[in-house]
Amino acid sequence: MGNREDLLAGATRCLRERGWGRTTVRDIAAAAGVSHAAIGYHFGSREALLGLAMVATMAEWGEQVGRAVQESARAADPQAALWDALVASITERREVAMATVDALVQSDHEEPLRAVLAEGYAAARRGLAAALLGTTPDAVSEHDARTLGAVQLALVSGVMLQWLAGPRDAPSGADVVAGLRSLARLVPAPVDPGTPGAPESDAAAADSEFPARLGRPARRALAVHGYTRWAHLTRVTSAELLALHGVGPKAVRILTEELATRGLAFAGPEGGA
Fold first, then answer.
1. Does residue 124 share a domain with residue 70?
2. Which long-range contacts (CB under 8 A, 24 or more apart) does 108-115 make?
3. Which residues, including other chains, have CB under 8 Å from residue 45's CB and lie 6 or more apart?
4. 142 and 166 co-located in one domain
5. pLDDT digits (tens, 9 = 90+) for 218-243
6. Which of the listed residues 184, 214, 236 is the one where a domain comes to its end?
């Protein structure tokens, strides 16, 4: 590797071992085995170099999360498998998680760092949505990035913080999934046109991939719970959909048939039926 690559690798190592705030120019130079003057020559400043290292570190972690999403789709309970893998990634990359938190704290005083993190979170929202939908980040709509992707990122970040603060009492993958399913049952689906929130659910339903023959109440109930794509249904059981107000046996039968024509099925044994 050349000096530039050595410096980037050294900065990445320092981020993991020392965090953003405690990493100095001398630390990076020593880790890279080059003169600290090379930092200014190749990157302009310590902050610029660390910013690139942070982006690379977040991207690497994001790729691991993306692989976990894809692999979990083949499990009997995709959501449980996914969150088990996410929790494992947090424990395996604890130093990276800590570096991210440290950088977030430091960003309150460093505008360039805040911009780097904002860009990283935007990419993470899009990447997580893409992984869940089984598509590429470029194909993710702004709506899906700001809803599905943002919520998944919030969940990942929250679980990460709990594992960093107290691993012994932090939620397992099964705990997270049980909580999500309980939360889904507590969130009402507005099916009455006069109900607050109905216009938003109508807009989401109109953007869904599901056929009109499914019926307006079912389409709206699915949309308000975040189910607007066929890929979404592969991560939920038919029984869980039947528990949603507005989704009846006829709607589930139609969805089962439509999924089958696409080579897909509900989650769980025998497609969740």
1. yes
2. 110/47, 112/47, 112/48, 112/51, 113/20, 113/47, 113/50, 113/51, 113/54
3. 39
4. yes
5. 888 888 888 888 888 988 888 889 88
6. 184
Cα 1 from Cα 9, distance rounded (Å): 10
Domain presence at residue 146: yes
Res 181 pLDDT > 90: no
Looking up tokens 């107290």 gives 166
What is the separation, in whole angstroms, between the first and last Cα of the chain? 55
Can you say how many angstroms the Cα of residue 264 is from the centroid of all Cα atoms in its chain?
22
Q: Is residue 14 part of a domain?
A: no
- Give the tokens for residue 223: 């949309």
Please check whether residues 163 and 81 belong to one and the same domain: yes
On whether the CB atoms of residues 85 and 173 are closer than 8 A, the answer is yes
Number of domains in the chain: 2
What tens digit of pLDDT does each residue of 47-64 get?
889 888 888 887 887 788
Q: Above 60 in pLDDT, residue 183?
A: yes
pLDDT in tens, 68-106: 777 887 777 888 888 888 888 888 888 888 888 888 888
Task: Judge if 148 and 218 occupy the same domain.
Answer: no
69 and 162 belong to one structural domain = yes
9 Cβ partners below 8 Å, 6+ apart?
1, 31, 32
Domain that holds residue 165: 53-184
Clarify whether residues 145 and 156 are in a common domain: yes
pTM above 0.90, yes or no: no
- Which residue type is seen at 199? P
Q: How many CB atoms are closer than 10 A to CB 109? A: 9
Q: Is the residue at 175 inside a domain?
A: yes
3-state secondary structure of 45: coil
Question: Is residue 262 a part of any domain in this protein?
Answer: yes
